[in-house]
Amino acid sequence: MSFENLNEQQLAAVTAPPGAVMVVAGPGSGKTRVLTQRIAYLLQEQNVAPWRIMAVTFTNKAAREMRERLQHELGEDLRGLSVGTFHATCARLLRREGDALAPQYTRDFVIFDTDDQKSAVKQALEDLNLDPKKFTEGRMSSGISAAKNVLITPADYQATDHVGEVIKRVYARYQEILQANNAMDFDDLLLNTVLLLQRNPLIAEKYRQQYQHVLIDEFQDTNLTQYNLIRRLVGEGGNLFIVGDTDQSIYKWRGADIRNLQRFQQDYPEATTVLLEENYRSTQTILDAATAVIRRNRNRVDKSLRAMRGHGELLKMEEAYNEGDEAYRVLNELRSLMVNGYNAGDVAIMYRTNAQSRALEEAFIRAQMPYKLVGGLRFYSRKEVKDVLAYLRVIQNPADEFSLYRIINVPKRGIGAKTWEGLRAWAQAQGWQPTQGLLQMAEQTGLAVPFSGRALAQLMQFAHQLRHWFALSQRTSTTVADLLDTILKDIDYKNYLGEDTDEGAERWENVMEFRNVAAVADDMPLSDFLEEVALVADVDSLEEGSSAVTMLTLHASKGLEFPVVFLVGLEEGILPHSRSLQSDDPEDLAEERRLFYVGLTRAKDRLFLYHSFQRTNWGQTNATTPSRFLADIPSEMVGGLAQAGQRRQATKQSMSSWSSGWNPSGGSSGNSRPSPVPRPQPNQHGNRKRKSRATPRKRGAPKRVFPVWRRP
Question: Do 116 and 182 touch, CB atoms closer than 8 A?
């Protein structure tokens, strides 16, 4: 195996001796290559069997890339090699050790997504007679997740105030509901794996013997539960290879604990440390600006990033009048970039909060400039997709009461809330889940049931359909696509969506796109297919080589890169966020600085920084102050119309960009300021409202510019 393409630091990491190894990888330093080459080195040079290696990443995209690179480079059978996310890895382990999960779970447990979790928390609040307005689902969910991230079970939960007491009660009831549905949420996958290994030393030892080399990507983003999982899988003297960077730790809000790097150094004092400082992504000017910002943080591993692509152009910093002017300045700059050879797909616009996309979207709609919103309209969150998923989930796991509740009257069957509650109560009295009750109704002629008339007829029809689908799913020749086709035909879902309208047609296209996903799964078992779908992340569906500008939050930008990056809304209260400015924990402000650093280092060639003179938030327009982080960038690295600290007044010149909206042909749209264009509003299914085909678009009216979701 050749290491000719590795630099000196990368080679030192790849060939590091056995034991614990910490690789501190700066942005764009080739950490994915290092991880891949480390695995190749173990396989070919150290003769380690594939099934003795476990590599854990934070996204499905990273896992796929790693496996594809290995397959391309080695061209050999990699069966048995474990490469996946924490959640996928834990899900596989829990299913293998299903017997040890009893009696709380079986190995066929389902994974509840965010909406399912919300439903379960709401049910827990209702069961406990708690006011959902006072104790909101969001607050309860956050408290439960925070507890699980630090290995706290309901029995271990220590409340310090009244709200804590309520969270403790809701947490306990929530877990009972999940177990009754044979379901785990994402946090449970991690927590239950740690508990399983903790309570079953022989199982833990089995996996320590099997996985003699454990490699962890993005180690700085691990939480306490994940760190405990790693420790139990590796043991005291095992071979642990971690790659991380304290400067890119930006997920504290979802449990990431930057102190895990310190814990690693304490637990493995003899660990080999390697710095990756040669950057293959950005120019030296971008790196120097980013380094100047991040060096103001404490408790970090200092690095001297060296660009392999030269100095490049200066950063451009502009002050707009307001958020609307900011959006049009971005568009005008984009026009100039495209004239000079860049494509729209080369460009990303990043912001601190999702709400900031509004002004940008309106400007892009007006200009008929295509764009895509990462995390804006998640495909798997569309109502029609969640409907068909719920059908499959009920068939895979009859105990999933939430999915049954979703589909029992979709399409409309005349089964209302009263009938549902009656079914639920009757089934519980018999010791069954509602789905089991329906199956018993279909199988046992003359079974005594508390229903009659139309309600009984509708329930019986649905029960017989369920029985048919269950039987079909048990045949080894039935693929997920076959099962889905049968369900869609039996319930006439196409007609239910109303294909004779544009909205219905678009929704049916989404169902067919989901059907394509199922077809690609080929002979994958239904349980595995549903698990893959549940583990998909927003950023994994980002289409490469797209012809549309990408809009996304700074948090969603992690791990991505673009030739051109615009960072907008760089003002106090936005970045850094107001919460960090009001916090007593200095780590909150430090994380905001790291978030800005991550945004800066996504850029390959050009970097544009924008802040506004005033901004409207919560219905109020107020003057703003440029972000303190901008003042940390040396002035010699910055060009543009306005640098940090300059405050321009609202003059005709500062508003000139409003009068010349960009259009695809590069011309002006007029000499007067246009009136605001109403933004298409989302309907209940997450799609933009569209007129039916029976209402033709007026001659000369602009066509709809929101792109229909397409799977890459």
Answer: no
